[in-house]
Amino acid sequence: MSQDNIFQEIDEELRSDRMRALWRRFGPYVIGAAVAVVALVAVNEGWSWYHANNAAQSSDELYAAFDLIDGGDLPAAQSQLDTLIADGSGSYPVLAQFRKAGVMAREGATADAVAAYDELANTQSNPRLRELALVLGATLMVDAGSLADVDSRAGSIAAEGGPLRNAAREALGLAQYKAGDFAAAQTSFEAVVNDPLTQSNTRNRMGYYLAQLLSQGAIAEAPAADAEAAASAIDEIVSDEAPAAETPAADAPAATTEAEPVAE
Q1: Closest CA to 185 of 223, 214, 222
Q2: pLDDT-based confidence at 89, cuts 50/70/90?
Q3: In 145-223, which residue ranges form alpha helices assigned H by DSSP?
Q4: Under 8 Å CB-to-CB from 162, ≥6 apart: which residues?
Q5: Fewer CB atoms inside 10 A, N or C side of the chain?
Q6: Rounded to whole angstroms, how far apart are CA atoms 124 and 18?
Q7: What percent of the chain shows pLDDT beyond 70?
Q8: Could you read off the pLDDT of 46-79 as tens digits, one per residue?
């Protein structure tokens, strides 16, 4: 039994010697790797904190610019937005560019605003932001440009399935109306009306546009069956915007007679 103990102690000593030798050989690498991991985590946390802090500051600067706009101090708002565009963090410089273009349009600098939206459309990697810039530019070009100017920006976005399709169709329809292409305008407005995802206030606007076209005689009057359906649709438009107490369900026939002057 004593010999077994001696051999066991010798084995343990040998194993201990081997472990010390391995540690002397590889220990510095293990320690170095651990230090590198700690340093990497520290740098990452510091970088995240830095960006979060800058993003919070940029958010405050953007809201300060919004307050200046609401207060009517547009020159000061533009200066604030320029600073944010140059030095902001995260996505706030892009938001500031969109807002600055809106301020330009509000000041009457339509050409500069359209140029700013076009630049955003050409430089943004996010397809939705590009589409938004194109639609906003197209909307300004309804009054400031031609049908071709609007179509070159909003035409592709008006295709079925796009999230901004109805905004693009409305801009196209208005430009087509302005250009005297009433049949195309009717098609654009009706595409918005027939879209099941169209919001009620947008559908109401399309109803007014179509009623205006009909009152001008710019579009053909629908057959009798369709005319009745169109009248009902206009009734719904009027009823949606009237207070509930003034348009009870029982008075639906009366609403029809009130809706007729809208189309005249």
Answers
A1: 214
A2: confident
A3: 147-154, 165-179, 182-193, 200-216
A4: 131, 168
A5: N
A6: 61
A7: 62
A8: 545 445 555 677 778 888 888 888 888 888 888 8
Q: Which residues contact 141 (CB under 8 A, 6 or more apart)?
A: 114, 149, 150, 153, 171, 175
Residue type at 204? N
Q: Is the pTM here over 0.90, yes or no?
A: no
Which residues have a Cβ under 8 Å from the Cβ of 151 and sit 6 or more positions away?
Answer: 172, 175
Q: b/e map of 76-111 (b: 16 or more CB within 10 Å)?
A: ebbebbeebbeebbeebbbbbbbbbbbbbbeeeebe
Q: Nearest to residue 166, comparing CAs of 137, 205, 222, 133?
A: 205
Query: Which whole-number Å values give the CA distances from 126 to 123, 152, 154, in the listed order?
Result: 9, 19, 17
Residue where the block lists tokens 């706009």:
69
pLDDT digits (tens, 9 = 90+) for 138-196: 999 999 999 999 999 999 999 888 899 999 999 999 999 999 999 999 999 999 999 99
Q: Say how far apart CA 8 and CA 1 lie, in whole Å.
A: 11
Confidence bin at 257 (pLDDT 50/70/90): very low
| Contact yes or no for 154/176 (Cβ under 8 A) | no
Angle between helices 127-144 and 165-179 (to 10 degrees): 20
Q: Which residue has the higher pLDDT, 101 or 12?
A: 101
Is the dihedral angle over the CA atoms 225, 226, 232, 238 positive or is it negative? negative
